[in-house]
């Protein structure tokens, strides 16, 4: 045992010491978060138990507890029961020591469950000492970033590996120790030295010591000032909540994060390794599972509810493949989000984005085929590119994939060809089904015909539970309420307005002319007497007085023009953002709106701005009229109410009584139930889902006919049959 052995063991010991230091520094930072979190969590649990009726105790004990006497005694909530304690409970007639103990045991079980599930929300508008302490504690871990998390993971692995090796190698560090050791210990020492050399060599190649050193520096920084921490929290609250969710014991329920997939499939996904070395951001637990699902299942639909970060999950999968040596990736998306995709790829990964759009797209395509990269193109541009050979594209990503649900369109056929030729394919959509379950089935068929074909039984499927089980290998869906407990509340208000005489006259003219679109926007046809417009002004005025930003959505460009004139002279108005605005300009409008330091209004056509653009700067959303598809409204609201939002979002849907709005609202409710049964939940059964909805044209025609009859403009059975006009 010579000098080289002692040096090898010494290097291993230094690496082990550095790893232990990082683990210790991280542990202290996590403990600081826990200490700051404790009082806030206790308060949130107390609120939860204070709102939990005492009848829940009966449920916990499977009905064995006679709770009526407890309630009659004045103890109406679980929180009051815990505060009462055993002495007060025993004063209730019929409650002895044993019963009191059972009552308290049941209450404590509910309290424990609340501790595991209650959400602590940080109110950026009402900072107080306890939340400030939590934000400052989190700031240290957020500043360490994804490299800090990787350093901790690496350090924990090194401690596990090097600790036993260094213990076994100790006899080899001295001639006398080696002589005195037995044969078995000498053999173990030699093996351990070889193991240490291997670990140190791997660490040298990967630059691990530099990674650990930087992590220690980041984790030993002094605390941020109150102001700096709060400013940073508002700018990147999603990262703060991501760190908070990763604190041991704070993760969301595993089934929800894993989309309630069957156990065997979920286990297969968990075994899939994810290399995030080329990713520049940290993933939430459910996002990491989503990226693993994409990689493990190869061709899938990621149907997460809007606002959960489908884009970063896709990028995580791409970077994993890039780290494994793959070079060619293609993202297909609507023009409105092309710029956003390029920005996200640049900001969140080390991948090189390549834009395949505009007059030079064919030259750019040829260069991409030669050199590789993460190419981003549009549905229309894709049709002009030759489909690749098998294996040329490591992964195809299709954003807003519900736009290719109709297999008869050229757009869908082009995507289908690329899906077939790509090694992996990811269809991303928070709205995989808008009118018929068959549309969702078409997306599944594009990926796995063997799964989709058995689902068909004439025009229906066997039921939503069976449907979700059948498509589980290719479909993953998580909802905001299940995995983003910190998301501020969404307050949705239907603002029913009584039409003015002028509104009624405009509506009657639209019905008489057989113009369905004119019926939908009649409430704005005569602005000077518009009941909806007056209410919209009030909402914007109130938001401005509270320093809030507002997004106003309408299907119609001329309605946005009316709104712009009505708001002229008040808060700054941005837009309108319509389908005619080039994609780069759309993003600039949103950026300018977000950059305003006070209240502002953004006017947006719902089809153009309801997809892809992020509007977390807004905390008030106004829908000028109900839409024919519930997913259009949901997408629009999700532009503001998404991960990263730190304020409560208020949604106001402006509705006129007595006409087309009432009929559309009822249709929207039916469509939402259908989506819930098949694409959102898995516990509701429907026998004939395809019979529930009709096409948009059919809806328009039926409402028009019914309104003509209601207003006495034609006799029943003789209503006009005019097609709806374009917006």
UniProtKB/TrEMBL annotation:
Pfam family, any one: Helicase_C
InterPro entries from the UniProt entry: Helicase_ATP-bd, Helicase_C-like, P-loop_NTPase, SNF2-like_sf, SNF2/RAD54-like_C, SNF2_N
PROSITE patterns: HELICASE_ATP_BIND_1, HELICASE_CTER
Gene3D superfamilies: 5' to 3' exonuclease, C-terminal subdomain, P-loop containing nucleotide triphosphate hydrolases, Tandem AAA-ATPase domain
This enzyme's EC code(s): 3.6.4.-
The Helicase C-terminal domain, residue ranges: 535-692
Top EC class for this record: hydrolase
GO molecular function: helicase activity; hydrolase activity
SMART domains in the record: DEXDc, HELICc
Keywords assigned by UniProt, alphabetized: ATP-binding, Helicase, Hydrolase, Nucleotide-binding
Residue ranges occupied by any Helicase ATP-binding domain in the UniProt entry: 291-450
Protein's recorded name: DEAD/DEAH box helicase
Source species of the chain: Streptomyces wedmorensis
């Amino acid at each position: 045992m010579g000098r080289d052995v002692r040096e090898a063991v010494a290097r291993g010991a230094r690496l082990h010491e550095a790893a232990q230091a990082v683990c210790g520094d991280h542990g202290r930072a996590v403990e600081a978060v826990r200490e700051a979190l404790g009082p806030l969590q206790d308060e949130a649990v107390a609120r939860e138990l204070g709102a939990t009726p005492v009848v829940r105790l009966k449920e916990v004990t499977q009905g064995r507890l006679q709770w009526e006497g407890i309630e009659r005694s004045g103890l109406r909530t679980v929180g009051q029961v815990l505060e009462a304690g055993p002495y007060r409970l025993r004063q209730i007639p019929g409650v002895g020591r044993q019963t009191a103990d059972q009552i308290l045991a049941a209450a404590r079980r509910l309290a424990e469950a609340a501790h595991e599930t209650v959400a602590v929300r940080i109110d950026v508008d009402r900072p107080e000492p306890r939340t400030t302490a939590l934000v400052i504690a989190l700031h240290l871990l957020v500043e360490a970033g994804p490299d800090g998390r990787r350093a901790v993971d690496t350090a924990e692995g090194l401690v596990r590996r090097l600790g036993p090796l260094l213990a076994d190698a100790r006899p080899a560090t001295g001639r006398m120790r080696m002589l005195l050791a037995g044969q078995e210990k000498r053999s173990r020492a030699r093996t351990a030295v070889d193991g240490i050399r291997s670990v140190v060599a791997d660490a040298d190649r990967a630059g691990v010591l530099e990674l650990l050193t930087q992590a220690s520096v980041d984790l030993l920084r002094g605390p941020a000032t109150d102001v700096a921490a709060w400013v940073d929290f508002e700018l990147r609250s999603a990262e703060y909540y991501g760190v908070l969710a990763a604190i041991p014991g704070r993760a969301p329920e595993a089934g929800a994060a894993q989309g309630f997939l069957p156990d065997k499939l979920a286990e297969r996904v968990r075994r899939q390794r994810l290399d995030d070395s080329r990713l520049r951001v940290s993933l939430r637990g459910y996002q990491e599972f989503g990226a693993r699902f994409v990689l493990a299942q190869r061709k899938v639909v990621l149907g997460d509810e809007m606002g959960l970060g489908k884009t970063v999950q896709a990028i995580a999968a791409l970077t994993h493949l890039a780290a494994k040596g793959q070079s060619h990736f293609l993202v297909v998306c609507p023009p409105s989000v092309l710029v956003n995709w390029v920005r996200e790829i640049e900001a969140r990964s080390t991948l090189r984005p390549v834009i395949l759009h505009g007059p030079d797209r064919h030259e750019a395509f040829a260069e991409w085929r030669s050199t590789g990269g993460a190419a981003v193109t549009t549905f229309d541009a894709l049709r002009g590119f030759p489909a690749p050979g098998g294996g040329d594209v490591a992964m195809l990503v299709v954003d807003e994939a519900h736009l290719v649900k109709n297999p008869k369109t050229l757009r869908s056929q082009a995507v289908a060809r690329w899906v077939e030729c790509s090694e992996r394919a990811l269809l991303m959509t928070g709205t995989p089904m808008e009118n018929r379950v068959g549309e969702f089935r078409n997306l599944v068929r594009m990926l796995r015909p063997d799964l989709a074909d058995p689902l068909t039984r004439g025009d229906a499927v066997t039921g939503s539970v069976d449907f979700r089980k059948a498509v589980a290998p290719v479909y993953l869906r998580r909802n905001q309420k299940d995995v983003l407990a910190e998301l501020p509340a969404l307050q949705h208000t239907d603002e029913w307005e009584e039409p003015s005489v002028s509104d009624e006259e405009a509506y009657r003219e639209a019905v008489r002319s057989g113009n369905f679109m004119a019926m939908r926007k009649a409430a704005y046809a005569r602005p000077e007497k518009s009941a909806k417009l007056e209410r919209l002004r009030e909402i914007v005025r109130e938001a401005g007085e509270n320093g809030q930003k507002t997004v106003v959505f309408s299907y119609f460009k001329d309605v946005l023009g009316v709104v712009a004139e009505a708001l002229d002279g008040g808060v700054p108005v941005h837009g309108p953002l319509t389908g005619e605005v080039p994609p780069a300009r759309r993003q600039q409008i949103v950026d300018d709106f977000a950059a305003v330091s006070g209240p502002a209004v953004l006017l947006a056509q719902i089809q153009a701005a309801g997809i892809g653009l992020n509007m977390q700067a807004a905390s008030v959303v106004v829908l000028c009229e109900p839409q024919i598809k519930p997913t259009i409204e949901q997408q629009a609201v999700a532009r503001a109410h998404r991960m990263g939002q730190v304020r409560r979002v208020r949604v106001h849907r402006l509705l006129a009584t007595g006409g087309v709005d009432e009929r559309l609202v009822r249709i929207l409710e039916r469509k939402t139930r259908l989506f819930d049964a098949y694409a959102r939940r898995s516990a509701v059964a429907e026998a004939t889902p395809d019979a529930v909805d009709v096409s948009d044209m059919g809806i328009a025609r039926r409402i028009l006919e019914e309104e003509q009859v209601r207003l006495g403009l034609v006799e029943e059975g003789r209503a006009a049959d005019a097609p709806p006009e374009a917006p």
